[in-house]
Amino acid sequence: MTASAQTLSPGGAQPAADPAPAKARPAFRILGALSASHMVNDMMQSLIVAMYPILKGNFALSFAQIGFITLTYQLTASLLQPFIGLVTDKRPRPYSLPVGMFFTLVGLLLLGFAPNYPMLLLASAFVGVGSSIFHPESSRIARLASGGRHGLAQSLFQVGGNMGTAIGPLLAAAFIVPFGQGSVAWFSLAALVGAAMLLQVSRWYSAHHVAISRSAKAAPAAPYPRRVVIGAVLVLLVLIFSKYFYVAGISSFYTFYLIERFGLSVQSAQVHLFIFLFASALGTIFGGTVGDRIGRKPVIWVSILGVAPFALLLPHADLFWTTVLTIIIGLVLSSAFSAILVYAQELMPGKVGTVSGLFFGFAFGMGGLGAAVLGVFADRTSIDYVYQTIAWLPLLGLVAALLPKEKRRA
After folding, report:
1. How far apart are CA 248 and CA 255, in angstroms?
2. How many CB atoms lie within 10 A of CB 47?
3. In 3-state terms, what secondary structure has residue 93?
4. CA distance 410 to 408
5. What is the C-alpha separation between 110 and 172, in angstroms, rounded?
6. What is the chain's pLDDT, residue by residue, as a tens digit (410 residues)?
7. Count of beta carbons in the 10 Å neighbourhood of residue 191
8. 2-12+22-402 has which CATH code?
């Protein structure tokens, strides 16, 4: 682990001179801890979405109000993450990770005992703050522990989060639906487990930080002119918009769609949501690892645009084919983010925290904005019409053709 850490800079950039890149090895113990804590973090976030049918009934909420719950925690994370990433690029904060998990713990406790809608929004905001602290610094440490296999490291980190998101609906169906809103507070115990794992990660990072800093004399130059980098980042943000606006429609309203269109029970709809999210978790691991071998751009192209035919078919399918199509969509679409994030980090070497904060924050923001906008849209039209409309979003994957050709490192 020491060897792999010392070959990388504190910003996660490739050093100007790497004397023995063949000897670098990923620190799988650290990557495993990051992935597991990411699973805990995102599982607790997904409990909010999984509870929507319960909250809708308990507080007589409209679809727009449900969408604004998502907007609250995602927008909180969206606004804070780029700032936190910028600050930690200049001065890393290893022990901020357990602090972020503490905010999520408080959010879950508030969610379990919230007596009214404003308190639900406050609870969601605490969860958003926890995520905003967790993601930029964790992504930096994942890159530091990668041993040069940056796509693999980001995929391992991301797959933990996606697995946590997938588990949330199952836990809601098994515990929260039968035992009520207050039972979600018990899941705050998982936050304590996550904080314990992150404390170990923080100690590893703190112990290696001095050696890492000394090994990096200067960040390498950007591989493209500033104008090209700005244009490429804008294209990547358009792709993030396409992906997360579409995912917001699936994750926030899929249970309602299944209940309305096919007459499923809440528990059965939650199981179908788990199937989609589990497929997304499996797909995540391929984006980074395949990108390490063939380049990020082909993965980005296929993962966004390749979903379009299946998304267009989804609103017209029966229950069996709806399940099949959502599995394919989850597998293919989820491979995009790891490739996009590593591509962006390579566009701006030495600014891993800033890049991670920007892209995680924008992804959270688009997810929250999508949920709010689509919630209002669903109130005025129907859930079915929403699904027909968002089916066109993956076609924005065509803009990936504007990305510059990757420059292979020696």
Report:
1. 12
2. 25
3. coil
4. 7
5. 17
6. 334 433 333 333 333 333 333 446 888 888 889 989 888 888 888 788 778 888 888 888 888 888 888 788 877 877 777 788 777 777 777 788 888 889 988 988 898 888 999 999 999 899 888 888 888 888 888 888 888 788 788 888 888 887 887 787 778 778 887 887 888 888 888 888 888 898 988 888 887 654 554 444 445 566 778 888 889 889 999 998 888 888 888 877 888 899 989 988 888 888 888 888 888 878 877 766 776 777 778 888 888 888 899 999 999 999 999 999 999 998 888 877 778 888 888 888 777 777 877 887 787 778 777 877 888 888 888 888 889 999 999 998 888 888 887 665 44
7. 26
8. 1.20.1250.20
Q: Which residue's structure tokens are 């989060």?
A: 161
Comparing CA positions, the residue from 243, 254, 300 lying closest to residue 277 is 254
Identify the DSSP state of 221. P
Q: Model's pTM, two decimal places?
A: 0.66
Q: Where are the domains of the chain?
A: 2-12+22-402
- Per residue, the 3-state secondary structure of the chain, as one string, reads CHHHHHCCCCCCCCCCCCCCHHHCCCCHHHHHHHHHHHHHHHHHHHHHHHCHHHHHHHHCCCHHHHHHHHHHHHHHHHHHHHHHHHHHHHCCCCCHHHHHHHHHHHHHHHHHHCCCHHHHHHHHHHHHHHHHHHHHHHHHHHHHCCCCCHHHHHHHHHHHHHHHHHHHHHHHHHHHHHHCHHHHHHHHHHHHHHHHHHHHHHHHHHHHHHHHHHHCCCCCCCCCCHHHHHHHHHHHHHHHHHHHHHHHHHHHHHHHHHHHHHCCCHHHHHHHHHHHHHHHHHHHHHHHHHHHHHCHHHHHHHHHHCCHHHHHHHHHCCHHHHHHHHHHHHHHHCCHHHHHHHHHHHHCCCCHHHHHHHHHHHHHHHHHHHHHHHHHHHHHCCHHHHHHHHCCHHHHHHHHHHCCCCCCCC
> Which residues, at least 6 apart from 50, have a Cβ–Cβ distance to it below 8 Å?
168, 169, 171, 172, 173, 176, 270, 273
Crossing angle of helices 117-144 and 150-171, in 10° steps, is: 150
Q: Which two tokens stand for residue 14?
A: 């490739």
